[in-house]
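Dear support,

I submitted the protein below through the web form. The confirmation email said the job was done, but the results page showed an empty box. After a refresh the structure appeared. I'm attaching both so you can tell me whether what I see now is the final result or a partial one.
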Amino acid sequence: MSDEASRRLTMYLWRRRLQQWGTILLGTIALAICLGYLTSLRVSKIDTIRNSSRLSGTVISRHAIRNGNAVSLQVHLENGRDVSIRAWTPKVPNAGSKIRVSDTEYASGRHDYRIVRMLE
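What the results page shows now:
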């Protein structure tokens, strides 16, 4: 093979490599731009708060969660619902304690319950 043919073949191979890596690089950049755009839309705002109320409830049972002061409480609310609440508080209510609960309803139908304060 002559030097000219060898040089042409080498240049051809490098151009092919650059085309392949360029395509991969452009695809990666396009994907990063799309993910950045979707993140900037703040998908979390789609699930907006529809209603928020405060209810009284009675702790039915409590179960310790592995880390520190965290507990899972089963609470019977004044509207008749039985809900599970995870709480990270230094004062953990015992079974039978009266508590005030914040009920937040989101547009998706999800409910979020939080302990506001202990009544007893």
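Response: this is the final, complete result; the empty box was a page-load delay. The chain has a mean pLDDT of 87.
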